[in-house]
Amino acid sequence: PALPGAVHDVRAAREHGIVGALAEAGIKCWADKGYRGAGGTVRIPCWGRWETLSTGQKAVNRSHAKIR
User: Fold this and answer.
1) Is residue 1 assigned to a domain?
2) What is the pLDDT of residues 25-64, one digit of tens each?
3) CA pair distance 27, 30, nearest whole angstrom
């Protein structure tokens, strides 16, 4: 069922069982920073402002963006 528009994506994914189903199936999911705290197999980019990220974190975020 549809949820109100004010519901955050991660909450909607949890309520509909998407996060749990992905984890149970062992499927990795590359998501945006809006899914921070989702857990399971949901992967998000490194958190923080671009200027404060290390070179390695920037490389991870670039790779993450290409996969998404």
Assistant:
1) no
2) 999 999 999 899 998 899 999 999 999 999 999 999 999 9
3) 10
Separation of alpha carbons 56 and 33, rounded Å: 18
Domains of the chain: total: 1
- Is 55 buried (19+), middle (13-18) or exposed (0-12) by CB count in 10 A? exposed
Domain limits at 14?
A: 9-67
Q: Does some domain include residue 3?
A: no
Question: What's the pTM value of the predicted model, to 2 decimals?
Answer: 0.77
Domain-located, residue 16: yes
* Residue 1 in this model has a pLDDT that exceeds 90: no
